[in-house]
Design brief:
Blueprint (H helix, E strand, L loop, with lengths): L1 E6 L2 E6 L12 H13 L4 H16 L3 E7 L5 E8 L10 E2 L6 H9 L2 E4 L33 H9 L4 E9 L2 E10 L7 H45 L4 H6 L1
Antiparallel strand pairs: 1-2, 3-4, 3-8, 4-5, 6-7, 7-8
Length: 246
């Protein structure tokens, strides 16, 4: 499989062994269509997140898939989870803001998907050569094969995680949260299925944003209707102070 990224005047080509992973729907694109159909059948924000976690786990076969939401203070909370029956539940757990530092969050906003197929991988050095473009550092933000922070890898190892994949959830141009996937053993996700997962994350983000806006609009109607009802009653009142206390 060959993947091309354009960085200014440079082109970055990633080459990896071609693998294909048949899905329950026959191919990754049909899988995304099926996954989105399930999302559309939900009737609440919590049900939408539950469905997203379940659908991603069914498509990728990770041991655990969580919807991880960032709160107003930067901390995170697991608001939905699909997991193997023998795993401890993480649903409802909170994590400090330092769990995912600002630098990592900025990267998640630029790159919708991040895969670590084996936390015990041995990083390879990047060997560069002079070019006519200059010696500026190579930006590998969008490269699937780039290495990750050794601190993060050690963090995953301490959790007993053998492989991980993260999909960004972006609402209103802000990082709302992550679809975090963990596996106890190494787990490689082929390029075509990764593309399908990224497409799903983008569509899920749009649906989530629409649901949030709808929910907020419905909540704003409750006090407005109460105020309208109170106003009508007071217009008929002969003793406003008494009726307000009642």
């Amino acid at each position: 499989d060959a993947t091309l990224h354009v960085q200014g005047e440079r082109g970055i080509i990633e080459l990896e062994a071609a693998r294909r992973c048949p899905t329950k729907s026959g191919d990754p694109l049909n899988q995304v269509i099926s996954m989105l159909a399930v999302l559309q059948s939900t009737d609440s924000l919590s049900a939408l997140c539950d469905a997203a976690a379940s659908q991603v786990r069914a498509a990728t076969d990770f041991d655990r898939v969580m919807i991880y939401r960032f709160l107003h203070d930067g901390s995170g909370k697991v608001v939905a989870e699909a997991r193997a029956n023998d795993l401890e539940a993480f649903l409802g757990l909170h994590y400090p803001a330092s769990d995912i530092p600002a630098q990592a969050r900025e990267l998640y906003q630029r790159n919708w998907l991040r895969l670590i197929p084996d936390v015990h991988y041995q990083p390879a050095p990047l060997v560069s050569a002079r070019t006519v473009i200059g010696d500026e550092p190579l930006d590998m933000s969008h490269c699937a094969l780039r290495s990750v922070s050794p601190i993060h890898v050690e963090y995953l190892r301490n959790m007993g995680v053998g492989a991980s994949m993260s999909l960004s959830i972006i609402v209103g141009n802000e990082l709302w949260g992550l679809i975090a996937c963990h596996n106890e053993t190494p787990r490689y996700v082929p390029a075509d299925l990764r593309a399908a997962c990224e497409l799903f994350a983008r569509m899920f983000s749009l649906q989530l944003e629409a649901r949030i806006e709808t929910t907020a609009a419905q909540r704003s109607l409750v006090p407005r209707r109460a105020l309208e009802s109170l106003t009508k009653d007071l217009l008929k009142s002969r003793d406003i102070a008494t009726d307000l206390m009642a």
